[in-house]
Amino acid sequence: MADDLSCFSKDSFLIKGPKNSPLVLRLIVLMFAMVCGVYICSICLKQIGTNNTAGFLTVEPIQKPCPEPNIEPWEVPYVHYPKPKTFSRAECDCKPVRYFAILSMQRSGSGWFETLLNSHTNISSNGEIFSNKIRRSNVSMIVKTLDQVYNLDWLSSASKNECTAAIGLKWMLNQGVMQHHKEIVEYFKTQGVSAIFLFRRNLLRRMISILANLYDREAKLLNGTHKSHVHSPNEAEILASYKPLINTTLLLPNLRQVEETTAKALEYFNSTRHIIVFYEDIVKNRTKLIDVQEFLRVPHKNLRSRQVKIHKGSLQNHVQNWDDIQKALKGTPYESFLHGDYRK
Ligand SMILES: *[C@@H]1O[C@H](CO)[C@@H](O)[C@H](O)[C@H]1NC(C)=O
Ligand SMILES: *[C@@H]1O[C@H](CO)[C@@H](O)[C@H](O)[C@H]1NC(C)=O
Ligand SMILES: *[C@@H]1O[C@H](CO)[C@@H](O)[C@H](O)[C@H]1NC(C)=O
Ligand SMILES: *[C@@H]1O[C@H](CO)[C@@H](O)[C@H](O)[C@H]1NC(C)=O
Ligand SMILES: *[C@@H]1O[C@H](CO)[C@@H](O)[C@H](O)[C@H]1NC(C)=O
Ligand SMILES: *[C@@H]1O[C@H](CO)[C@@H](O)[C@H](O)[C@H]1NC(C)=O
Ligand SMILES: CC(=O)N[C@H]1CO[C@H](CO)[C@@H](O)[C@@H]1O
């Protein structure tokens, strides 16, 4: 429209010019044409400018698409290419990332297990993020936290760099997992998160570990600091010197309740991709960790932890009322817990 108008006025200026020629009129028409031209040019420039910058913003992050990873079709929902806000994945931009969550219970060896996983260059497990009550106060907070973790934007001492190939966290069943299981299962399925269940077979040993840990929270046996995990045999010995008294009235109901929780959790998460790992099995045979690395689809490495086991050897050395406990468990399905012994 504007173009036509300016051309028309130019034509009329050329045709009419020679006949009727007041200089003022010619100048006015000339000025009008110039203003029109400048106006049109400026609009053109503006449009080119915005479209160019808009183009850069939307096109740059997806520059060249990553080549199709060499994976089996069932794996596709579990392979991700996060774009962290806090850093660039640089040379590993096109390396796929797997999401996982270690679902466990307190004093089941999950701290040790996590340090083993974190000794792998491509695995980053961010610890017990949901021990913080605010982060698990409702489903939207949980989802927001998980989104941040899986987008590689959660900063913790475990965060690795651009070449993380498996990202996750440690999550205790009593930290909102059981309470919000429906929504969490839904999240795991839609976002492609794999679950690693880590349980302990000998629940009596677990109970002793819980009681000793609770006691140390107050007593702080190691030079006035409370420690849940130790790195030297000397420290382990000091912590194990405390022998808890187990209330035998509560023993059976408590063991039963832990078993029920475990069974329920497995039932809830049955439809998610998962693996079940037992602490005792890893202690006995480290090659079990290959199964876990296979599950996470990371290259196989020799995993290490500096943590030292606290309660070693026969259980009877670790409690005050061994005789009562023996009596309470004789003839129950839990009798085998009395004998389970293993070295490390
Ligand atoms: C969830 O919890 C957070 C923090 O406690 C709160 O700010 C937010 O309003 C809650 N959201 C819903 C939907 O309840
Ligand atoms: C693992 O990390 C290394 C660098 O630390 C990187 O070169 C390698 O590509 C990563 N592997 C995977 C599968 O992402
Ligand atoms: C406690 O402190 C003493 C002296 O400061 C030190 O020799 C000892 O190793 C410490 N023990 C532990 C378990 O840290
Ligand atoms: C064991 O627990 C029960 C129930 O809490 C309590 O009534 C009982 O006194 C406890 N026994 C001992 C020896 O502490
Ligand atoms: C999970 O589902 C499978 C079949 O879909 C079933 O065989 C198995 O018993 C279930 N496990 C639990 C713990 O519910
Ligand atoms: C350790 O476990 C692997 C499989 O996870 C098995 O092949 C191997 O025989 C086991 N080794 C021992 C000593 O039990
Ligand atoms: C060709 C083209 O992409 N034109 C777009 C330029 O930007 C404006 C608004 O920013 C869009 O409306 C045009 O479609």
From TrEMBL:
Transmembrane: is it a keyword of this entry? Answer: yes
Q: Which UniProt keywords apply?
A: Membrane, Transmembrane, Transmembrane helix
The regions listed as transmembrane in this protein's record are 23-40
Can you tell which superkingdom this protein's organism belongs to?
A: Eukaryota
Q: What is this protein called?
A: P-loop containing nucleoside triphosphate hydrolases superfamily protein
Specify the species. Tripterygium wilfordii
